[in-house]
Amino acid sequence: MTEKPLLLLNIVLSNLISKLKVFIGKLEKIRSNRISLEVIRVVHSFEPKATPLIKKVILDEQSGYKFERDTNDELYFSLTTITTQIKEGLIKGAKLITLEGEKNFRLIHQDLKKWLKKEAGLSQDQKKTYEKQVDKLIKDYQEKLLEAEKKKARELSS
């Protein structure tokens, strides 16, 4: 009887880990204010027909680069300076990513609680035990996500 709930907990855990990685990855992609030696980004295009597409992708990813010039097989981009307005926008974006992650964690939590209530093969003690374990997992992952957001905000503010 305990194999099914353990399997479910493993599925929930792997789902939480994958969601956490997604949201922390989104937070890490937000540009920081650290001075980088990579002020100019040079992209080599081995296929001249792909050059406009490469340029579009780099500009669309909004990583803080602006197009400078191009040659037959190279594109040059420079890193724009971060203004206070841009910093505030990036911090706001980080908060939105965190809120989206918390929402996903809540949905996972709700689904699991519903499943535990419906599961007839478990005693009340087992249900409470599994619910406490899931509560702790959700809380831990929410804290990790919040810590990643705080780290990004500190990075952007420095």
Please tag this protein with its features.
67% helix, 3-stranded antiparallel sheet, 2 domains, 158 residues, 3 strands, Topoisomerase I, Chain A, domain 4, elongated, 4 helices, mainly alpha
Please provide a written account of the structure:
The protein is mainly alpha-helical. The chain folds into two domains: 105 residues, Topoisomerase I, Chain A, domain 4; 40 residues, no CATH class. It is built from four helices and three strands, in the order αβαββαα. A three-stranded antiparallel β-sheet has the order 1-3-2, covered by helices on one side. A hairpin with a 3-residue loop joins β2 and β3. The longest helix has 35 residues. About 4% of the residues have low confidence. Pfam families: RRF. This is 17867_t:CDS:1. It comes from Funneliformis geosporum. Keywords: Coiled coil.
Give the % helix.
55-70%
CA distance, first residue to last residue? 53 Å
Number of domains: 2
Q: How many runs of DSSP E, i.e. beta strands? A: 3
Task: Identify low-pLDDT runs.
Answer: 33-38
CATH architecture type of the largest domain: Orthogonal Bundle
Largest sheet: 3 strands, antiparallel
CATH class of the largest domain: Mainly Alpha
Shape: elongated
By CATH, the topology of the largest domain is Topoisomerase I, Chain A, domain 4
Q: What sequence of helices (H) and strands (E) makes up the elements?
A: HEHEEHH
Mean pLDDT: 78
Beta strand %: 5-15%
Structural class: mainly alpha
CATH superfamily of the largest domain: Ribosome-recycling factor
The largest sheet has its strands arranged as 1-3-2
Number of helices: 4
Output the radius of gyration: 22 Å
